[in-house]
Specification:
The protein is of the alpha+beta class. The protein is 29% helix and 29% strand. It comes from candidate division WOR-1 bacterium RIFOXYC12_FULL_54_18.
Length: 491
Amino acid sequence: MDNELKGTEISSGKGDAALSEVEELIRQTLAESKISAPAENKEKTQIKEEYKATTFSSPTPKPIPTQPQPLAAPIAQPVSAKPAAPANSYDATFNEYKAGDIVRGKVVKVDQTGVLVDIKYKSDGLILPGELSEHPYASVNEVVKVGEIIEVFIEKLESKEGYVILSKARADNERHWKTAMSAFHNKTLLEGKVLQALKGGLVVDCDGLRGFVPASQVSKRAEETFDSFVGKKVPLKVIEVNRRQGKIILSHRLAAGDKEKADYDKLLSELEVGQVKKGKVVSLKNFGAFVDLGGIEGLVHLSELSWKRVKHPSEVVKLGEELEVFVLGVDKVAKKIALGLRQLQPDPWASAAEHFKAGQIVKVKILRFAKFGAFVELGHGLEGLIHISELSKEPTATPEEAKHPDGTPLKIGDVVDAKILRVIPDEQRIGLSIKQVQVERERQTLKEVQTSAVEDKKVTIGDMIAEKERARAEREGLEEAVEGGSEEIPT
């Protein structure tokens, strides 16, 4: 027992020497990592080292324990990390950054010396004036404002003054290149403003992304010049991206075609039967008028131009005229649109029965001939039909053979009297007859002649009676004269 104690005392002295070396090594390690070792761990380490030294310097070796000894240093438990805030929230705490990262921050101060940005780091970020924008500017306030959330590129995590050095210009540049690459691969359209016209093409700006449109890729009319594009916004399509050379080539011609197609499909999908749209007459054909609805054309058929029958669209509309049309039908598969103009006008057939009744004699104007008769204008915006069998009292094979009572041929434009035979507003039909007017008038004339003849005949009988009375009187006078011996005999 005494020997063991003595051995322990000796090994204690050796353990102190070994412990001092270990402590020195720990101090150096802590100095390099700038982390202070907890006092409790130092004590436990010292106890552990002493225990180890005593064990190995003991004269009688002891068996190695199968379970950890109470004096052994406890295994360090990992420090639980603080739950991270949602990645898409500005209030998220960024625990680690590195140079080259692009992060979002809030502008907290703006002056001519630079811009301070809170990026949720241990120190604020600083944007120097030269790193604010890729393009020249007159005032810092033109680029950013206090309270604005912006994207910044981390140039350096810590400067001599303790700021994180940031660059908004580089963040914008990265974003622009990503936009260009995305538009190139996805074939999406961009909108750009023409900044400058050159002999070889146009310089454009697409929300900070600058590119060049070669002359061959500019869609223009023959009378247009490149200078006429300056200041205008045009659709663009990325056709080449070369970041190494800092080159972005765009096409206005391809984009214009794609945009027209996209606009056409969008307008077609929005059109519904029953809508009233504004348009412009762009073409007149024998069968109708084409109307541009702002990128998509529809047809107003001849029969839908007016409630009256129309021979040519020019009778109702003019080329270039702006008007409202009614959407009658939309075929989204065949991409055809049927439009109407008369639907927006009062329907004259709604009051047709108020203006015209069967048996009425009206004056009509011959508008046109058809195989089965003639169409006539009645007034109040209505038309009627005189069947070929009702055009003349005399049978005719064609409407052109019909004649007036005086024998002259019936012509388009003639104004004649016609009798209304029927009025059917629901079927938009009014039937008329010229023949019946002629027949009735002939009957009336014959009746008048007969009446006149009867009247003439009655006068003649009276005269005859009077004549008989006169003759009788004469005979009586002659007899008296003979009886009286008169020599004068009346002749």
